[in-house]
Specification:
Blueprint lengths: L8 E10 L2 E11 L4 E5 L6 H8 L7 E6 L2 E5 L8 H11 L2 E4 L11 H11 L5 H14 L15 H13 L5 E5 L7 H16 L3 E5 L3 H7 L2 E6 L2 E7 L2 H4 L4 H7 L6
Parallel strand pairs: 3-8, 3-9, 6-7, 7-8
Antiparallel strand pairs: 1-2, 1-4, 4-5, 9-10
């Protein structure tokens, strides 16, 4: 595991609650540019909420998030969310691509139209440039031959790869994945993971919430184990499986003894 002096992503003292229930408690982590980090842990432990805070889909109650020199900070849950805060959240969100468990593609648009849409609308990018970039990203995920198909005419694996291309079209510095393979049949999982491995080789910073332990061990630079809203352990991808430092990590990973 690396310990960067100036990480691309730095999270300090992050807290988040829903209706009085503490979901995230004092999250502190730094992630370096180009790292692929897997987040594992029991269902309901706060993994997805953490990602949603990084992408500003959820508003942190307290703490500081910095991504690519854009800092979003809140002193307490009572802090007023003013125009400056919302502008910072917008700026931070522009640096981050998000891929969800569900594909969230527009069913009435072709793959090419799906990938072109956000650059056209959000970035006001010209149509020809948006089309050229969309074609290159569809090619990157192995879908250039399917550019004129509608999502419902594709397999789940193909739809998820298209969702990755759509996120990449916004030129993010960071890619976040929330259980990207959990809704796929087992035979389709690998084609999505291969895209993520290829992006890692190109130097894309990626954070993956996953239950795919083989992928977490084989592809990650390091692994974060979370439980009950806290980071319990951050460790090298091999070390955490062979000799976890915390008893809670060891107990969780015992069910994956074949990894």
């Amino acid at each position: 595991m690396k310990t960067p002096d100036s990480p691309l992503i730095h999270v300090h003292g992050l807290y988040k609650s829903y209706d009085g229930h503490q979901v995230l408690k004092d999250i502190n982590v730094g992630i370096e540019k180009g790292d692929l980090v897997s987040i594992i842990g029991p269902s309901g432990c706060g993994k997805s909420t953490f990602l949603r805070c990084l992408n500003c889909l959820e508003t942190l109650d307290q703490g500081k998030i910095t991504i690519a020199d854009v800092t979003l900070e809140r002193k307490s849950p009572q802090s007023v969310l003013d125009r400056k805060f919302h502008q910072k959240a917008h700026d931070l969100r522009e640096e981050v691509g998000m891929v969800f468990q569900g594909f969230n593609l527009f069913p009435h648009k072709t793959l090419l139209q799906n990938v072109m849409l956000a650059p056209l609308v959000v970035k006001k990018q010209g149509k020809e440039l948006s089309r050229a970039k969309a074609l290159s990203f569809l090619d990157k995920v192995g879908l250039s031959d399917f550019k004129d198909r509608y999502p419902l005419r594709l397999s789940g694996g193909q739809q998820q790869r298209a969702a990755i291309a759509r996120a990449l079209a916004m030129s993010p510095l960071v890619m976040l994945y929330d259980e990207p393979t959990s809704s796929l049949d087992p035979q389709l999982v690998e084609e999505v993971l291969q895209v993520m491995r290829a992006l890692d080789e190109e130097g894309m910073t990626q954070i993956v919430v996953t239950h795919e332990m083989h992928f977490a061990r084989d592809a990650s630079d390091y692994i974060i184990y979370m439980e009950k809203g806290e980071i319990i352990e951050i460790s090298d991808e091999d070390e955490i499986f062979i000799a976890p430092k915390d008893a809670r990590t060891k107990r969780f990973l015992a069910r994956y003894s074949n990894v």
